[in-house]
Design brief:
Length: 77
Amino acid sequence: MTALTRIWHFYRDGFRGMTLGKTLWTVILIKIIVLFGFLKLFFFPDLLGTRFDNDHDRGAFVLEHLVESAPGNRSRP
């Protein structure tokens, strides 16, 4: 067997043998999905999609702000 197959079987058999661990991993995964879904919907709106009509304008805006905030850029006070 290859190393990847042995690793896969190791983790598969380990998760099969869990009792409390399965429940805890399920709770953790549900919390992560809900947390990131909630954050994306309410705290990270699609500003580029609402401000610009096409990809060229979006790209130009992002490039301008990346160059503006670059560590070596001395144009800002």
